[in-house]
Automatic annotation (TrEMBL):
Keywords: Hydrogen ion transport, Ion transport, Membrane, Transmembrane, Transmembrane helix, Transport. One of its GO terms (molecular function) is ATPase binding. Belongs to the V-ATPase 116 kDa subunit family. It is found in: Membrane. Pfam families: V_ATPase_I (PF01496). The gene is Dsec\GM19181. This is V-type proton ATPase subunit a. The chain crosses the membrane at residues 405-429, 441-466, 537-557, 564-588, 600-618, 639-656, 746-770. It comes from the Eukaryota. It is a multi-pass membrane protein. InterPro entries: V-ATPase_116kDa_su, V-type_ATPase_116kDa_su_euka. Essential component of the vacuolar proton pump (V-ATPase), a multimeric enzyme that catalyzes the translocation of protons across the membranes. Required for assembly and activity of the V-ATPase.
Length: 814
């Protein structure tokens, strides 16, 4: 956890690598994942860099891989899943040539098979449609010997029946084909219009579904025959068929010719089936063979492309015998990088080993915080607000405890906390199996499993404090109250309430949490309201004071010692003298006023903390009856006046202290005033113009003074959500589950199961899921706005090292 207090120290390191060892060096560094390379060729376009041809080769191999993978998805060929230890390393230059040849061979073979398969499928489909035309048109021709309907058959000119006049009177031409059933009726109307009703159309639906040649989807088709006279009408019909994508097939009118043609079509269909079957078997063998290697090929190509992409960041020296690069490296990983460079030089048999230096720089390094499975979720919550500045205090270290605690204050129920704990425990135990699920919402829960685990533990703890288990209380230690009334008084029908005074009926202190007797009290909500409201303010003020105090650690590290006196001191005084004093009054009132004394310190004379605080700010007063007093102790009014005066002094202290200090410092050092910057810089520093410094400090002061009040009130959400959660839990118990206890017969036993199912479903869905999400978001806001704004700048940028693991994970998500 010590690594989380601040981000790690970073070093800017130039790398000097021989060209023959460059590929192996970057491959080794990619496996380690501890260098963030800088682009030294920003002014050079992507098409003019040294390794652009290699990157294009990788793009071409990726294109081939995508095609092979898409063909496997069409045939539903499953790809084997590689375990992390089975992942191949980046291929060496010799392996690249072999890999490229294998991919090209597989790609060309699949493309050729796909083209041949498409042609064979089209021929097979046309043969099937031709067979359907020949079979279904059998009933369209009545007496083939008397009436000649075959326009392709030559006529005997000596036959009297074939004279021109007779041909015009008796001979009909026809066109046969296949069309989609959904287009047939429009097709029929179009033929009627172009022929003015002089076309006789017959159709016969094909049984079953037929594959569509355009989309490949199964559709309904029908066989049609159009009878007509005249060559001109024939051309029109063929044009309409083309427009409606209707396939026209030759069909003889003679029965014997059709029968002979059907036999020929059947023989060709059998041959096509055999060829298609052999082609499918060959395609399956090729795809299965490629599927065994495709995951490895894909990883190798991605790694190779990433290596050449990084090599394009390098700048060759004047002689061209060395590549120079720069990168940010965590100081703890410098030895790891040096070992990787030495190992790469040895693998590539380079005559000159690669080496790395560390240089001083004024640039702000990237922020890198080393995390593990437990701390990663909390660090992500902080990074979502803003990446920490370099070496700034990291709030995630403290959020590991404060975040689940503040959540539990709002979600305090032992039963609901146990549900969260069991769910998180299941996620943790089944972590490896569940990590293969790629559903986005589920991965959010899986990534925050340890956050949910701690939220469940803390909710169980606050549930013990509130003594709340599904809206019921546990009498573990025995109630500290005892009854001092006789049985006759208690059983009196005219008696509506029994009042128990602590002085008479409390004989001990309940050891841990809330006394269970409050579950029966009529003033339960009033008591819990007061308790939780004051508890929220106390927790909030302590949380904010801790946040302001953390700014001292930042000031001390960055050697801004003047800011400790000019910023931290007035801020913490303002917060302590006003709201810290209000917290003191709450504890003082709890301790001093009790039911064991009479007079000014009796509970009836206890003043309202809110009224006292308002009168303190506004310098007002209130009338109190005898023997009560306005203030809780002697000299309180004078102390309050002093506190208010000091708090008011803190405002100009914050407003003018730092700007005047910078102004005096510049005059004494004789430094020239800074020039106005044309670009928009990040944040405001001591190098800005004095006008900007005054404006920035004024905004900061106004924001802090106003936010101190608003942030304190914001912590009342702890009370509000805790009360709402408890009341909703009680409503579900009384109006759902307890309804099953009202029946005494066997029907009551059945109804208990029914009502329990409804109650359990509503409890998990509303109280645990929806209320839990609401409490989570409110807790997140309290950390981002109320806590982290007191000391956290968040103006840094993330350390993004070149790592194969990250590249492969992103590729899988895409």
């Amino acid at each position: 956890m010590g690594d989380m207090f601040r981000s790690e120290k970073m070093a800017l390191c130039p790398l000097f690598i021989q060209p023959e060892a460059a590929y192996a060096s970057i491959a080794e560094l990619g496996e380690k994942g501890c260098v963030q390379f800088r682009d030294l060729n920003e002014e050079v376009s992507a098409f003019q860099r040294k390794y652009v041809n290699e990157v294009r080769r990788c793009d071409d191999m990726e294109r081939r891989l995508r095609y092979v993978e898409s063909e496997m998805k069409k045939d539903e060929v499953k790809l084997p899943v590689l375990r992390p230890e089975e992942e191949p390393s980046a291929p060496n230059p010799r392996e690249i040539v072999d890999l490229e040849a294998q991919l090209e061979k597989t790609d060309n073979e699949l493309r050729e098979m796909s083209a041949n398969g498409a042609s064979l499928d089209a021929n097979f489909r046309h043969m099937q449609e031709l067979k359907c035309v020949l079979e279904n048109t059998e009933g369209f021709f009545s007496d083939q010997e008397v009436i000649n309907l075959d326009v392709n058959r030559k006529l005997d000119p000596e036959d009297p029946a074939n004279l021109p006049g007779a041909a015009q009177r008796g001979q009909l031409a026809f066109v046969a084909g296949v069309i989609k059933l959904e287009r047939f009726f429009s097709f029929e109307r179009m033929l009627w219009r172009i022929s003015r009703g002089n076309i006789f159309l017959r159709r016969a639906d094909i049984d079953g579904l037929v594959a569509d040649e355009e989309t490949g989807r199964p559709v309904l088709k029908t066989v049609f025959v159009a009878f007509f006279q005249g060559e001109q009408l024939k051309q029109r019909i063929k044009k309409v068929c083309t427009g409606y994508h209707a396939a026209v097939y030759p069909c003889p009118s003679s029965h014997a010719e059709r029968k002979e043609m059907i036999k020929d079509v059947n023989v060709r269909l059998e041959d096509l089936k055999l060829v298609l079957s052999q082609s499918a078997d060959h395609r399956s063998r090729v795809l299965n063979s490629a599927s065994k290697h495709l995951p490895r090929w894909s990883i190798m190509v991605r790694k190779m492309k990433a290596i050449y992409h990084i090599l394009n960041f390098f700048n060759p020296d004047v002689t061209g015998k060395c590549l120079i690069g720069e990168g940010w490296v965590p100081t703890n990983d410098i030895s790891t990088v040096q070992d990787a460079l030495a190992r790469a030089s040895k693998i590539s048999e380079s005559s000159i080993p690669a080496f790395m230096n560390v240089i001083e720089t004024n640039e702000m390094p990237p922020t890198y915080t080393r995390t593990n499975k437990f701390t990663n979720g909390f660090q992500n919550l902080v990074d979502s607000y803003g990446m920490a500045s370099y070496r700034e205090v990291n709030p995630a270290l403290y959020a590991c405890i404060t975040f689940p605690f503040l959540f539990a204050v709002m979600f305090g129920d032992l039963g609901h906390g146990l549900i969260l704990l069991l769910f998180a425990s299941w996620l943790i135990i089944k972590e490896k199996q569940l990590s293969s699920i790629k559903e986005e919402i589920f991965n959010i829960f899986l990534g925050g499993r340890y956050i949910i685990f701690l939220m469940g533990i803390f909710s169980i703890y606050t549930g013990f404090i509130y003594n709340d288990v599904f809206s019921k209380s546990m009498n573990i230690f025995g109630s500290a109250w005892h009854m001092n009334y006789t049985r006759d008084v208690v059983q009196d029908e005219n008696l509506k309430y029994i009042t128990l005074r602590p002085n008479d009926t409390v004989y001990k202190t309940y050891p841990f949490g809330m006394d269970p007797i409050w579950q029966l009290a009529e003033n339960k909500i009033i008591f819990l309201n007061t308790f939780k409201m004051k508890l929220s303010i106390i927790v909030g003020v302590i949380h904010m004071i801790f946040g302001v105090s953390m700014s001292v650690v930042n000031f001390a590290y960055y050697k801004k010692y003047a800011s400790i006196f000019l910023e931290f001191l007035p801020q913490v005084l303002f917060l302590l003298l006003l709201f810290g004093y209000m917290v003191f009054m709450m504890f003082f009132k709890w301790v001093v006023y009790n039911d064991t004394v009479e007079g000014p310190l009796s509970p009836a004379c206890a003043p309202s903390i809110l009224i006292l605080f308002i009168n303190m700010i506004l310098q007002g007063s209130q009338d109190t009856p005898e023997p009560c007093k306005e203030f809780m102790f002697e000299g309180q009014k004078s102390i309050q006046q002093v506190f208010v005066i000091i708090a008011i002094i803190c405002i100009p202290w914050m407003l003018l202290g730092k700007p005047l200090y910078i102004m005096i410092k510049r005059k004494t050092s004789g430094a020239p005033p800074p020039k106005p910057q044309s670009g928009g810089g990040e944040g405001h520093g001591e190098d800005d113009e004095m006008g900007e410094i005054f404006i920035h400090q004024a905004i900061h002061t106004i924001e802090y003074v106003l936010s101190t009040v608003s942030h304190t009130a914001s912590y009342l959400r702890l009370w509000a959500l805790s009360l709402a959660h408890a009341q909703l839990s009680e409503v579900l118990w009384n109006m759902v589950f307890s309804m099953g206890f009202k029946y005494d017969s066997y029907i009551g036993g059945i109804l208990i199961y029914v009502f329990f199912g409804a109650w359990a479903l509503l409890t998990v869905g509303i109280l645990v899921l929806i209320e839990g999400l609401s409490a989570f978001l409110h807790t997140l806001r309290l950390h981002w706005v109320e806590f982290m704004s007191k000391f956290y700048e968040g103006a840094g940028y993330a350390f993004e090292p070149f790592a194969f693991k990250t590249i492969l994970d992103v590729s899988e998500d895409d």
